[in-house]
Amino acid sequence: MSNGTCPEIDKYLAVLRLILDNESSAEEEQYLMNHLDQCSCCLKEYEIETQVRELLKSKLKQKSVPSGLANSIKAKIIQSKSNVR
How far is CA 33 from the centre of its chain? Predict the structure, then answer.
């Protein structure tokens, strides 16, 4: 794969996504590891894909809400429910 392309790129990417989503079999994981040992093109794709996923995870982490704000919202919800009746 010295020309920067890989004839197995579609299969590789499908298996990679299964692995990253924790939906792969042991055979698929072995295929990926063997393939990455031999293919620098797919190794680059692997690095990019894992970096993107890590970035998304870090940006999508749940953040805590200040208790005063949460209590204020709860009180307004309760108040609006009592006004509807």
Answer: 19
Count of C-beta atoms within a 10 Å radius of residue 23: 9
pLDDT tens, residue by residue, 63-79: 777 888 888 998 889 88
pTM equals: 0.57
DSSP string for 43-71:
HHHHHHHHHHHHHHHHHS---PPPHHHHH
Whole-number CA gyration radius for the chain? 23
Rounded distance between C-alpha atoms, residue 75 and residue 80, angstroms: 9
CA dihedral (26, 28, 33, 38) positive or negative: positive
pLDDT at 2: 42
With contact defined as beta carbons under 8 Å apart, do 56 and 21 qualify?
no
